[in-house]
Amino acid sequence: xxxxxxxxxxxxxxxxxxxxxxxxxxxxxxxxxxxxxxxxxxxxxxxxxxxxxxxxxxxxxxxxxxxxxxxxxxxxxxxxxxxxxxxxxxxxxxxxxxxxxxxxxxxxxxxxxxxxxxxxxxxxxxxxxxxxxxxxxxxxxxxxxxxxxxxxxxxxxxxxxxxxxxxxxxxxxxxxxxxxxxxxxxxxxxxxxxxxxxxxxxxxxxxxxxxxxxxxxxxxxxxxxxxxxxxxxxxxxxxxxxxxxxxxxxxxxxxxxxxxxxxxxxxxxxxxxxxxxxxxxxxxxxxxxxxxxxxxxxxxxxxxxxxxxxxxxxxxxxxxxxxxxxxxxxxxxxxxxxxxxxxxxxxxxxxxxxxxxxxxxxxxxxxxxxxxxxxxxxxxxxxxxxxxxxxxxxxxxxxxxxxxxxxxxxxxxxxxxxxxxxxxxxxxxxxxxxxxxxxxxxxxxxxxxxxxxxxxxxxxxxxxxxxxxxxxxxxxxxxxxxxxxxxxxxxxxxxxxxxxxxxxxxxxxxxxxxxxxxxxxxxxxxxxxxxxxxxxxxxxxxxx
Length: 544
What we know:
The protein has 14 helices and 19 strands. The protein has helices at residues 27-40, 53-60, 64-77, 157-170, 185-199, 214-223, 251-259, 301-314, 368-378, 387-398, 401-427, 451-460, 508-518, 533-542; strands at residues 3-7, 17-21, 80-83, 87-90, 143-144, 208-211, 243-246, 264-267, 269-270, 273-274, 284-287, 317-321, 345-350, 362-365, 432-434, 441-445, 463-464, 466-467, 495-499. The strands form six sheets. Strands 6-14-13-12-11-7-8 form a seven-stranded mixed beta sheet, with helices on both faces. Strands 15-16-19-18 form a four-stranded antiparallel beta sheet, covered by helices on one side. The radius of gyration is 24 Å and the shape is globular.
């Protein structure tokens, strides 16, 4: 079975690099083979600086000489070059032949208005309903532990400003005219290289369409345009329902699809991810294979292969929500599902987790047959994603600042995850924590029947967070005998979804203290399930 590693580059200035090591021979031979394949396929572009021996060896868990020997072999073969003072780089003559896809250009189409912002998420009122007698008021929500938002105080203002300034200075005059609906070619080229290197994606720049985020991508694919309301139906609908979705996911996405007339069918989830064997006559399926949202955990390798086989046999398509693929904290990286079949998988990503949701930039990596239709749905001009922001992001990626920021935040979020797990082990060892191998949130499993009271207690402690029930598909069934009955399709579970990335660094300790004060006591658990510190440590090491 193939082993997978990722070089995080956190101790050096190297770039993130996703590697798949397999086949016979020693680790040196496997490493040399993987690097050779990455260069040959174009995932490692000519001129890319390779990680130093010590850094890559530490990340892979191999001897430094193993990496040194592999590099020396590739230098001798001409794949790499090594110069004193500039490190080891991919040789310039290894540039693969260009085989760009030429998408069908859209027909004339009116420009759509900018994408609407998602409606405010409903939350319980922080004040109880007035009664005949005055009641104590809960503490104002001062600790934000809701999922979905990075630490906005850590936005790389200096690097972004420098990239924006360079982008403005170097921009050709055409930049200040109407934008290409596909996105700036500079950004699509940078994304193709970055996604190949860091996420194992197989694509060409002409298969990438820039959008303003995941919700915008869904509207383009299922609504025929980026807007809503009176604009609905004026564009070309690229995909149609019914659409299979994971039984736990973002309610906003389901509501958006419903508004576009798309019926969603829930797939049960277990410890191996979505039950893709339940797929039947749906035309498409939406998955979070690298890190199931919100329950955590990657889609099992057998199920990854099975869902691609289903798409081939059915003539369907898989939508891959790669929402936090950069933030993995163990040595078991999960590459993009898209790499298994670029003609059957649409990968959708954005910078909302890695940088900020305020930077309204995302991307779709499309099969060739969908490129023209997506561009037709988008319109003749770019109306959503700022062209100047696109150029600034391009510079951020090409200069290496994006990699450095992601590595820095990966270290910070890993440390926060560890603090959360340690606090629970000390203050509430009866609470099971899961989904901690990756991402920006964790799920705390609660005693049956205690979720609602725990959310209410958190409100009184001044903590804003989400209950697991908020993310459950309304059509996900428990079976005729109720939750946990013998015919249960997927029993509902009580839990809290805790976003440990959201608070600023100085506010995190107080947020953890308030969270622990809101959790139900051990005697509320039926049956009792104990998770001590040694078990948590084993989970972290194994990526459980």
